[in-house]
Amino acid sequence: MSDEYLFCNYSDCKAVITKFIWITRCSHVFCEEHGNSFFANNPNKIKCPVCNEPICRNKDIIKNNINPHDLMLSCVRPDKALDYVITATKLWSYQMKQKHKVNIQMLSEKYEKIASNSMSKLKTENNEMKKFIKEIEGEIKKINAELSYTKKKLWKYKVKEEAEVDLTFLDAGSSRGPLVVECRWMEECCRRDVCVKGKILQGALHH
Question: Residues 6 or more apart from 145 whose CB is under 8 A from it?
Answer without folding.
Answer: none
